[in-house]
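Researcher: Checking consistency across runs. Here is ABC transmembrane type-1 domain-containing protein again:
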Amino acid sequence: MLLLLLLLLLLLLLLLLLLLLLLLLLLLLLLLLLLLLLLLPLLLLLLLLLLLLLLLLLLLLLLLVLLLLVLLLPPPPPPPPPPRLLLLLLLLLPLLLLLLLPLLLLLLLLLLLLLLLLLLLLLLLLLLLLLPLLLLLLILLLLLLLLLLLLLLLQLLLLLLLLLLLPLLLLLLLLHHHHHHSQ
């Protein structure tokens, strides 16, 4: 009886420990989910920046083609040389601006990639922290199973003992009754 009580107590403690571990696991998974949700807008921003960069490069290409066309144009009559020079200057200025813009965009992209890398490292660290916890949970579940099996075995033994003792008790009772009647 005492052994059974001890086993039940042990089972209760194990269940409580398991519950605590499951709660901890749930918290860690929630943290992981939160991290992933934080990561998602960052990835979208990265994609948007890449598209913007592509657009800028296309614009740059277009400007270069235009510049080449201006330079390759046959020399105009003597009166309009200033407009040609002006056109050249007007084309060079946005070109310079466009050359600066991708550079700035690339820097921003680099910063975003670094941030993404940091977040991924944090995610990896979280997963590494989660792994021993999962192993511990598995061990605890196995222990619990073992304990339940032990408890079941003990109950079976008690039942068997009771079944064995029952005829003996009946016999003793009958004998006692018979003895009482004979007196």
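Researcher: Does this match what you'd expect to see?
Model: One thing to look at in this run: Residues 28 and 130 are 7 Å apart (CA to CA).
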